[in-house]
Amino acid sequence: MVINSILDTDLYKFTTSYAYIKLFPYAFGTFSFKDRDETVYSEEFLAALKDEIKNLAVVALKPDELEYMFTHCRFIPRVYWEWLASFRFDPEKIEVYLDENRHLHMEVTDYLYKVTLYEVPLLAIISEIKNRFLNRVPDRDVILDRLVGKVHLSNVHGMPFSEFGTRRRFSFEVHDIVVSYLKHYAKFCTGTSNCYLAMKYDMRPMGTHPHEWFMFHGAQFGYKHANYMALENWVNVYDGDLGTALSDTYTSDSFLSNFSRKQAKLFDGVRCDSGNEFEFIDRLVERYKELGIDPTTKTIIFSNALDFGKALQLFDYCKGKIRCSFGIGTNLTNDTGFPPCNIVMKLSRCKMNQNQEWRECVKLSDDLGKHMGSSAEVEACLYELRLKGLN
Q1: Can you state the angle between helices 119-133 and 43-55, rounded to 10 degrees?
Q2: In this structure, how many other beta carbons lie within 10 angstroms of the beta carbon of residue 87?
Q3: Which pTM was predicted?
Q4: From residue 385, how far is each of 179, 308, 347, 378, 381 by CA, in Å?
Q5: How far apart are the C-alpha atoms of 273 and 303, rounded to whole Å?
Q6: Residues 267 and 294: beta-carbon distance below 8 Å
Q7: CB-hemisphere CA count at 13 Å for 118?
Q8: Side-chain half-sphere of 340: how many Cα atoms within 13 Å?
Q9: Is 158 left (phi over 0), alpha (psi -120 to 50) or beta?
Q10: 345, β-bridge pairs
Q11: What is the DSSP letter of 357?
Q12: CA dist list (Å): 85 to 58, 195, 209, 271
């Protein structure tokens, strides 16, 4: 089995699941898979994928895992973890097939507080069995040799980072090797997003909220109000905890224009996940100053497909301007000499309750060509936000 623990996922899946339960318990959603490389898959791969999907049905929260999450995540009440202990993945809800071009299609639909939990395990499964079918065998010495240099760079420069690599890891085995090494040798590694490995290696579980939280608000309340309402509702749930605001769901231009003084003071910082990071640093610093806030008291988390060399450039650029840290994923857990998967799974539609009509979800990006959603809905979103020229 690829997934042996329900905690073998990112923390923000649980924080978002609990937020849906608290504020939108009747809402439904569909997550849809996208392979940006348009990989051609085999029938044998599909059969192996379906077997792993069936295996998900027996994955459940164990008593020791419940106690760990309750004691290490004070912002989520025990009642959520007790509910999670009763939750089971339902393979029947996962629609998966190859089209006539042998491209993989996969969708999952359920209550939002449940369906959000499927995303990361499914992506990790696809990544691992794809590598297996391509007969890729990672060399442990190669992995460690590459890791040594990255950790040394962080240690020498005092550059903080966390490990964010569950969804596109080479395999669980490689992920485990990497996190074990970080635990023992990386002086400035602040934690891992993977809850199971955080528990195994006594590291801090890391994460706040994902794009889907903003996409849901955009679909239900309009794109102009999505950023503001998503952050307000996050505060309503977490009361100041998990205070890193994601900036690029509807472009950072839209985010910064709606970033209120109250939110800028309340949130500890902002996560930058696309676009030109150096330009974003200057714009965010300027926005904090406009709002009368000392930017050196705030933090940017960079998480846009980073390697350690790029991270060091950003780290140096931020000095004296704003604090920074780095969420590094694929460059840690899939730097094996083989090209990693370029796969995502995003919220594609939602509705507030069973009787409401489905509404399409859209994600824009500061990187051209990475908008998600139908062309018609993307156009409507761009028009509403007066970003017509960015498509």
Answers
A1: 140
A2: 15
A3: 0.97
A4: 41, 34, 20, 11, 6
A5: 5
A6: no
A7: 31
A8: 22
A9: left
A10: 33
A11: P
A12: 12, 15, 22, 31
> In angstroms, rounded to a whole number, what is the distance separating the alpha carbons of residues 131 and 144?
19
Counting beta carbons within 10 angstroms of the beta carbon of residue 239, is it exposed (0 to 12), middle (13 to 18) or buried (19 or more)? Answer: exposed
Write down the residue that tokens 């890891």 correspond to.
Answer: 169
Which CA distances in Å does 324 have to 268, 327, 358?
Answer: 11, 10, 39
More confident residue, 366 or 194: 194
- Averaged pLDDT, 91-101: 98
Predicted confidence (pLDDT) per residue in 346-390, tens digit: 999 999 999 999 999 999 988 876 789 999 999 999 999 998 655
Phi/psi at 136 (nearest 5 deg)? -85, 125
Q: Going along 90-169, which residue ranges are E strands?
A: 94-98, 104-111, 161-163
Cβ neighbourhood burial of 369 (10 Å; 0-12, 13-18, 19+):
exposed
CA distance 270 to 244: 5
The bridge status of strand 244-246 relative to strand 269-272 is: parallel
- Give one word for 124, left, alpha or beta, with left for phi > 0 and alpha for psi -120 to 50: alpha
Instruction: Name the residue among 122, 153, 167 with its Cα closest to residue 12.
Output: 167
For 130, the token pair is 């794809």
DSSP β-ladder status, 189-192 and 161-163: parallel
